Amino acid sequence: MLYLLLSILSSLFILVIFKISGKYNIKVIQPIIINYFVASALGYFISGLSPKEIMAVPTTWIWPGVLIASLYIFTFFLIGYSTRKAGMALTTIASKMSFVFPMFFSILIDPNDNYSNTKLILLIMAVVAVLLSVYKKRTKSIDSLFIIFLPFILFVLMGFADSLVKFAQNSFVKSENESSLFSFIIFSFAALWGIMLIFLQKDKKEILQPKVLITGLLLGIFNFGSLYFLINALNDLTFNNSLVFALNNMGVVLFSIIIALTFFKEKVTNLNKVGIALSIITFGVIMFFL
Q1: Distance between CA atoms of 84 and 121, rounded to whole angstroms?
Q2: Chain centre to alpha carbon of residue 51
Q3: pLDDT at residue 32 tops 90
Q4: Which of 97, 179, 197, 276 lies in the 20 to 30 Å Cα band around 265?
Q5: How far is C-alpha 186 from the geometric centre of its chain's CA atoms?
């Protein structure tokens, strides 16, 4: 359970950093670029492997690493943007309730996992909670409509990315060393995307500002931790991996809601409150049946 708790806390700190960085006029993309270099370096040093050993990584590790990296850098940008525009609580619920995708993917491919009516009920509760939590009154503004759909986009993309992580964990990532090595592969490919994004920046010198570098460093540490600890939690808690995904994401949802409403004073509608309440109930049900 320690790995699971550390993964939850790492994901939570990512959202808090995004929220706070918005007050310092830091462009979302800049610390994101730096964060992947930091996360990649952490994966390299923790794996304890030499460059020669890393070059010998099986090719079967590469394609899921490339896909996950591409999804991560895109969704990471969307999370940062949505956290500032749509709010921390609503963004968190939409992105983290995406556990329904890897949850049922795990049931399909993992012999240690199994289907139950309880899990089906959790799926329905999760989808309803997302819909209620992100609902806003319709507006004619294109920008506002885009902001409304941001959480839904995150819901789908994060679910797909987590499903690929489950595929990798179930197929070949079976130890802490392999977890750090696979994390290194993912974040290295994401860093390559980051290099391309640097050339698209109008003012490239801004990325070297101390506030940007510090934000990127912190994001990289917690971003690496969220993936590294999640994979280790899946290997450690082999029973019902689908519920591990659910408990991990719901834990982030509950903690982030408390922080968003308590410290950032975010406003939510009555319908959003119903969705948040349903999220809490879903978390309780998961804990009961785990």
Answers
A1: 32
A2: 28
A3: no
A4: 97
A5: 13
